[in-house]
Structure of N-acetyl-gamma-glutamyl-phosphate reductase:
Amino acid sequence: MTTSPKKIRAAILGASGYTGAELIRLLVRHPHVEIVLMTADRKAGQSIETVYPHLAGLGLPDLMAVGDVEWPGLELDVVFCALPHATSQEIIKGILHETGHGFVDEMIIERPADYANAIKGSVKVVDLSADFRLRDTDVYTKWYGEYHQAPELQKEAVYGLTEQYREDIKNARLVACPGCFPTAALLTLMPLLAAQKIKKDGIIIDAKTGVSGAGRSLREANLFTEVSEGMHPYGVASHRHSPEIEQELSKSFGEDLYVTFTPHLVPMNRGELETIYVNLAEDQTADDLRNHLQDCYQDEPFVHVVEEGVMPATRHIRGSNLCLIGVFADRVPGRAILVTVLDNLVKGSSGQAIQNMNLMFDLPETLSLEQAPLFP
Ligand SMILES: NC(=O)C1=CN([C@@H]2O[C@H](COP(=O)(O)OP(=O)(O)OC[C@H]3O[C@@H](n4cnc5c(N)ncnc54)[C@H](OP(=O)(O)O)[C@@H]3O)[C@@H](O)[C@H]2O)C=CC1
Ligand SMILES: CC(=O)N[C@@H](CCC(=O)OP(=O)(O)O)C(=O)O
């Protein structure tokens, strides 16, 4: 007689948000995961089908306020944190505190007993927010405008760009999933810079994103009337993803570098497209870049380099964990243009988070992420 293995007990903090809903959509098909806790803020107390009728009939727990959670007895194995940045760090600090590896600071953890015995020593945290992505505390303060509440964990966290940091992610207890724009930019540029196929100077990342990237909170700037039938840049020369992209690219290249990064909001629900302009290194051609990227990603389940002449588009990745990369020669000598697409709510956040969780639990990386994109 075979016994079925015990399921991974998962919590989704911020389950009523866009990335939270996407975690639910994907995880309910995961053969080894059971969602035992879901939290919300304004929506606390409601059932998930009230908030999201598309998630009806799945037998999920109701949404709770974080402060009302009876942590003891939950015996969580993994916590997905899909909360706004700055909110995540305090809660994660509290959760990891009681594992015996945490860093005690009674001034900051006001009610550590709330978490006492709730969490097993082996609990793992997958954070979707920006709180643990930047290594340097001062850089975090500069770009996010506040002091970090858990600087030790900031140093400990593993940057969750799966294809680059797979081995570190497997052994991590806290993974900081990259932002959606950095995911596309880094998957495209890190292998090229590491192999010195492109120059470090003059990299331009022109990004377009769907409106769900801004989250579900009501913001004037995201009203239908503000967004439909037009497009506009935002965060020009000041977007928080610039230092995140530079941190990782500098590591790949081995020297500090800067990028010009400009995101644009376009009237679609989800999806992201980056057109990236680079200067080729000596003796390199666009074909060399394509061949190199194809070699790097040939065994990857989710990152694909399209054949010459094929144009990646957001409709090719919608609802999937795919990232597609196209490489084109510029007519300006010595330059190339790369086009990268992914779904901000899947590979750009929740899908990548689950990919990382699979690694952290020694499971096949593709579990619950295999579905093809929704097309047309
Ligand atoms: N959207 C995207 O494409 C991406 C988002 N991310 C990051 O993921 C995280 C979640 O984003 P997203 O899902 O878009 O955001 P949403 O605004 O859609 O959802 C935020 C969630 O957090 C809850 N929440 C808000 N404030 C608090 C609080 N003070 N305490 C406890 N819970 C709170 C909300 O509850 P309620 O609804 O009840 O108010 C909701 O469940 C963010 O850090 C974001 O930057 C990363 C990559 C891509
Ligand atoms: C349309 C829109 O606003 N998109 C968000 C990107 C979402 C994301 O990845 O943000 P975090 O770094 O906070 O996780 C933005 O540009 O800030």
About this structure: Residues 14-20, 40-43, 66, 82-85, 87, 128-130, 179-180, 212-213, 215-217, 344-345, 348-349 surround NDP (ligand 1) (CB under 6 Å).
